[in-house]
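To assess whether the prediction recovers the assembly geometry, we first specified each molecular entity separately, as shown.
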Amino acid sequence: MYEPKMELTPEQLAILQGKEGKTKAKMMECLVRYGDVFGAKRLAPLTYKTGHLVTSFGISMLTTIYPLMDELIEAGLKAEGGFTADPRPMEFENCSANPLEKLVFKKIIYGRQQEYEGMLKKVGLKSDDSFTCTCYLPEVGNAPKKGDVISWAESSAVVYANSVLGAKCNRNSGVLELFGTILGYAPEFGFLTEEGRKADYKVIVKGDHLPEAQILGSAIGMKVMEKVPYIVGLDKFLKPLPDEDTVAYLKDMGAASASNGAVGLYHVDGITPEAKEQGEKLLKDDAKEYIVDEAEIERVYKSYPIMWKKKEKAPQRAFIGCPHLTYKQLVDWTNKFEAGLKETGRKKLTCYTVLTAAPAVVKKFKTTPDYARLMATGAHLASICPLMYADNPLCGAKRLITNSNKLRTYTFAKYAKDEELLNILVGKEGK
Amino acid sequence: MKEFHGRVIAPGYFKGEAAVTHHGFNTLASFQKSALNSRCKKVIVSDQNNPDLFGKNITGKALCLPMTIGSTTGGMIIQTVAARGIAPLAWLFSEPIDPLAASGIILATTWNGVKLVAVDNLGPDFLESVKTGDQVEVKEDGTVIVY
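The predicted structure of the complete assembly is given in tokenized form:
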């Protein structure tokens, strides 16, 4: 048996010793080893038991996940508080694919999707509508309170939960987050400790305009990597939480910082809960400074490589909503598309455009007149993960364009600022 | 020849070629094209944001890195490529290991019984000294020799 370095309770030790079965013992060993690497003193009990899983996709090549899930199911293990999971890979009715692309999706890449969703249900998936990366939005309702200890993965959800909700979660990997959710424990290190939540960097945002959330997040991520930034200068632009524009901004900034770097927690002066309570006392004594002015934002933006083979050609497909859009963002894009098309005299957007949001957000949006207005522009609305769409080599080779820095990072999609993307889609650019 | 000492995360002996990144190693972006393709018999790094390793083969090598970054699928991707026998065989971190890389190495070695060698805390000088293509030797006690 593995000799733990951390102190375990008699119940935890019994699990590790195999008294509750071989599978649970292996899960516990992984969790304890994980904590031991980081000097965790104990396994903290989860105070909010609903998990969030990063692995929502039945991708055929992730060969280790299926026998692992089979083993959990065979052992009768299930997450007590249930869990939500990242978006599904495809919805052909809302994000079209040609017959060959469909074949690759269904038979080759995501050939085990249905089987995998069945496995997820058996170990605790909350519902068929639980597939989104923005599980914390009010429409979805998987939102821990400040101070709650949770066992989540999905970089954008973890950074949001830590920073905006004030929950406590490390940047857990897929699989280990499920082990923690089922066992009901998380190793106490990093963001679960007071010291681990202190800021290593003071990021000073300068300028007369609110920087693009996705570029600011990218700049911060690339600079601080896994460290904790304390960001000053945004509170003059952002309204206090839970303002919907602030929620959307922090969601997008956090996702970019987590994917372009490894940020798992940030504080925004005057806005996020711990920064409001403690202010600059959150800064470590030896915190470094990083100034982000308009020139720095432009430098970072211009550093993104364009991976299209034919760079001068028009985009073939646009994705907006990685991470998934909030309800307010859907309304805002609808208004912007409509106004832009009116200005250019066009009836439809210039290229196939997919907006993505959580199933619950889409359901709510569909009950409003705005849905018909959005559809009239030619846009499509889905709940998929655009990144998984681009995993299909036939789709990924298309000239994709996006305002998501996360999608840019993991695919060959070209990044465009919100306004730039809008101008392309309504046909203003080049007129 | 230069010698470094780090903390042993996964013990073992390795001798072979180094593949070096000075940037955070984005696991999903780097393995995406190979981990998701059953026909791939080697990992050609597909992260366009990593000029040090983009387009290079890292299978069976000693990956020398500061840390891993990016998606929280990172750990299970390391687990999968390791179980498929196409991962780097040694993971040599100049910084303290990050949670995603640690998860991947623990899952691969504990759940799947794959043999990987991992050492962290080798210090910034390590990444200054080692170059892609250098021969490196890793010993059970966390000693790393760059030839």
